[in-house]
Structure formats: structure tokens, C-alpha cells
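Handoff note, outgoing to incoming analyst
You'll be picking up this chain. Sequence as last confirmed:
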Amino acid sequence: MPTWIDTHCHLDAREFAADTPAVRSRAAAGAVAHCVLPAVEVADFDAVRVLAHRYGDSYALGIHPLCTGGAHTDDLEGLDRALAAARDDPRLVAVGEIGLDYFVPGLDAARQELFYREQLAIARRHGLPVILHVRRSADRLLKHLRPAGVSGIAHAFNGSLQQAQEFVRLGFKLGFGGTVTFEAARQVRRLAMQLPLEAIVLETDAPDIPPQWLYRTAQQRAAGEPQARNEPAELPRIAQVVAALRGIGLDELADATTRNAMQALPKLGPLLAGAA
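Most recent structure output, in case you need it:
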């Protein structure tokens, strides 16, 4: 049976608070061998670290663009201190989740950009890759990445082929998850087919971005059908969709995406070797 890496899973989210051990157990039973747990704000830093150590996973520390409105610039110093304190922690693999979001209304674009730019500099100073939030912001992200000298993963990528190729040129892998399971997501599905296999990693973004089989329309929700919670255990089925789109076997996809994840997040390699 092929094994998988979920390169983006918010196991610390409140949606998992009541049954986190069962959630991680279901993922393991489905051959999800490892999850990368990115923080979204300073208040999450301890939680993702503890969970990563508890379940044999890894974590990233950063300030999400959606959290910049409530963050203080002192939080950037807090991130720097936290990374320094965890320098010898093998389970700290990246700075993230950071980036820009120009989709959600009411966010201060300049403030987002300040936090993004400063976190890129912090990542470079600590020699760590980054996990990027990309939402209608690919060109602006790229503008700051080119001089930053960092690489990593562009999570839940949904930009153009040209933008995708530029991220890849800069050394990034692109994350594909639940969105690719929707037939209407034509651009994302084209990217999953057209990009070189060595550019792709897999993710769930659990509990968010549910795949097609969990999604409930607004009409269904109004009728009382609850939206099913996304979990890392859904990753193998998402992988089946990606493999079918590319016309390759699951073993080939698993081997490639695992290798790609280790290239994007180099500290994963020793963790996965130790778990083998």
C-alpha cells in the first residue's frame, strides 16, 4: 500500500479538539504516514509543536495573512524568538503559514505585505523554507520571493500555469488538495495534469477545503445537511483523483510526492527515515 504525506493539515484547529487522537488514527490507518502542521498565529505555536511531537509529525511556525489584522508587529519578534528556541527541534520544518490573501474582503493589504515580507526575511535568517498561502495574490507573492532567496511549498495553489511555472523556477513545490476533486475546478485540474510530476505535493488543509464527496451546497446546508469535516484521512482518495488525472499509478504518485515534500522541506527526510 502506498504511503502519503499531508503537507498541510491544521490538526490544532478547534474542529478537531474533541477527537484529535481518533482523527490522527484514521489518517494513519489510511496510510497517511506524516502530517505537516502549520501555525496561523503566535497563540498556536505551542499547540502545533506539542501535536507534532505527540503524533510523530512536523510543524511550521508563522503568522497567516488572515490573522495579520489582529497581530502586532511584536509578534514578528515573537516568531523570531520561537524559531531560535526551536532551532534544534527536528520537527520544526518551515516558517508558515504565511502569505497574502486578496480574496477575503476587509483585509489591510499593506499590513499583510509587511508581515509577509518580514517573515520571508526571518525564514531566510533561520535557514528555513516557507509554506505559502496563495489566494488571488500569486504575482505579489512572487515579487517578494525573487529577492528573498527562500523556497518551500505554495499551498493550495490555484493560479495560472505561467505563475505556477515561476514558483517552480524559484524552487517551490505546489500543493494540491480537495479542490482538485471538483470537475468545475478546471484550472486547478489542468495544473495537476500539466505540471511536471516533480513539482507536486499533496495536502488536505483539513479541516478546510473539503473534497467533492464531503462538500455540501448552500441549498443542502439550508436544508439541514451539515458540511462534513475534512480530515487528513481523505488524502489517499484525493491522491486517487490526481493519479487518474495524470494517468499514473498510485505508487508512482506516492513516491514522487513524498520525494517532492522532502525536497521542499529538507528536515522531513530524517524524520521519515526514522519512522521507516
